[in-house]
Amino acid sequence: MSLSNLRDLYQQVILERYKTPKHRGVTDPVHRRQRGHNPSCGDTIELTLRLNEAGDRIEEVKFDGEGCAISMASVDLMAEALRGKSTDEALEMVQRFQTMMKGEAEFPKEQRKLNVMQGVAQFPVRIKCANLCWHTLKAAIESANPESDSFVSNEAES
């Protein structure tokens, strides 16, 4: 597949996820809640997580919010990829995604849908849009307050 065709495919997937997200809503019950905001462009999301009984595995992720196609596609793809992952695996995925945005890595075959976001790395100003949900996820997992009402921001991100 040519680079042009691959880029077109990536754009199609991003637009499809933006227009018809599969994971919009609120989990039932809510075990973790975290809001995220990208002051640069105004993207805002609210993540909710449903965890297993032990609290160490993600059963479901849902989101609500408003933002550009890249931020909304990224959160929808992330929500899908996290189902069944341990919280440690999820934190590793956060790191891998951020490394991918620097052009230094990609996801393995079983999580290859997330590689659709690789094209964003070509547009440095848009990396914050793609990373917003991952910053928010990290804060949700690491939070001592499972129902945080505060916003995390990715403004300090380079």
Give a quick rundown of the structure.
The protein has 158 residues and is α+β, with helices and mostly antiparallel strands. The chain contains four helices and four strands. The protein has helices at residues 3-19, 69-82, 87-101, 127-142, and strands at 32-38, 43-51, 58-66, 147-153.
Describe, in plain words, how this protein is organized in 3D.
This is Modular FeS cluster scaffolding protein NifU. The protein contains 4 helices and 4 strands. It is α+β, with helices and mostly antiparallel strands. Strand 1 (32-38) and strand 2 (43-51) form a beta hairpin. Helix 1 packs across helix 2 (69-82), helix 2 packs parallel to helix 4 (127-142) and helix 3 runs antiparallel to helix 4 (127-142). The mean pLDDT is 89.
Task: List the SSEs and their pairings.
Elements: H1 3-19, E1 32-38, E2 43-51, E3 58-66, H2 69-82, H3 87-101, H4 127-142, E4 147-153
